[in-house]
Amino acid sequence: MAIALAAPHRAAVSAGERAIASGGNALDAALAAAVMLTVVYPHQCAIGGDLIALVRNPNGETKAVLAAGTAPAAIDEVSSGWEIVPRQGAHSVTVPGMVAGWQQIAGMGARLELSSAFAGAADTAEEGFPVSAGLERAITSRAEAIAADVGLRGVFMAAGRALAEGDLVRQPQLAKTFRRLQHDPSDIYSGETALALVRALRKHGGTHQLSDFENYRVELADPVTATVDGRKWLAAPPPSVGALTLGVAAYAHGGGEELAPALVAASVRAVTTRRLHLGDPARSAVSNDALLHLDVTTSDRVHNEAPAHGDTAAVVAIDDEGWAVTIVQSVYQTFGAGLLDPETGIVLHNRGSAFTVDPELPSCIAPGARPPHTLAPLMIDSGDELIVAGCQGGRAQPWILAQLLSDRTATAGPLADLLERPRWVIGDVDLGFDTLTLASEPGVPETIIAEARRLHIAQHDFSGPSDSAGHVQLARHRRIRGDIEAASDPRADGHGAVFARLPHRGEPS
């Protein structure tokens, strides 16, 4: 009896291990890790952010949890004159969906109460934890924004300087918030925490009202599926970009060309597809078929997207009872909207900056709409094997996952070896480039670089393994062999591990 778990920070994996020791299953382990990440990886995820997940039960049924936040009902009072949606500040903040997403996942088959995960997070926030290498890089890269916000400055420049690796981070206000959530998770939507966030956002000029938080609901949906090279790929539907992951993999396999360069061509096409077709299907016409088939027939409507160096954290878990989950959660850009509410200790995301102001596009901002979402959890089922994947990587998540997992031969070996392979990503302003560019780590095959040249795409060389190439978490259950495995990206600060689990009541020990 075992559970495989991977997360980008060791403290998160330890939290999952404690949940397993308390009798939890894969869902409990993943939730404990996900909650802890909002304390120890606040540059990538916080309870002021969103979550999208895939959950599979022992009967083989998979559901997508879309905890994507909505724009304030009064946003049109200020957005009508915008030429672009603000990238930072209160107007970039949508209602945070993360806590509601955790509640939804817990209700789908977890054995433990979420309160235990909240208690552990509160203890860590109060006692403090050492700054990791990844958090130090984030603090350095966003030092100006941190210094400009009283909340961020009070936590990450508490000693009058930017915290460095090994320094202790204490978050007493966040600890108090988790204590409230421990007693009532809905406090962030209808209680003291919600009221504090509304006050903070309105102080910064936001149009948010308590009713925006009170009316928020998670969507539970069927996954988008596609058969690629004999395996069933499952992803979250829009507003998640998940269908595009399937589209890139299928397009690359469908042309009869060498797989690696075909993935580059598919990804270039997918950049335009995303801009044209991704949005909130509850508010506008969004076509899964267009995303799956990489439709670019109306590319003249596309405009450059706003810069967004996405920061996200993924947790994956799988157990031999048949539970599997991939949770991808985020504040979008590093440290989100550049706002930490001093009263609650919550870092607020800037997911709303992914909206456009073009009424012809499904991504256009509107009251109550959900922005196009980069979070792209993935499962691949080959019948005798299930792979569960999640990724940090901003808008590049679809091609990061597709290049890693499209080749059946590559995925047959140890998952840790797969994650050490050099990677490439494609992007423009999201990667800091003026034009569409293929950026590659040392060791990427020359066929990839040659394909970029053929497509007249600019090329950039990373000096080494790069955060921009993604932090991928993987878990696998080989049903016939009866073994499970987990691996965490060496570009992050975590690890993957397999833990023995306690028998559930009624199970043979």
TrEMBL record:
Sequence ranges of Basic and acidic residues compositional bias: 485-494
Pfam families for the chain: G_glu_transpept
Gene3D superfamilies, per database record: 3.60.20.40
Region listing for Disordered, in residue ranges: 485-509
PANTHER family: GAMMA-GLUTAMYLTRANSPEPTIDASE (AFU_ORTHOLOGUE AFUA_4G13580)
Record protein name field: Gamma-glutamyltranspeptidase
Source organism of this protein record: Microbacterium endophyticum
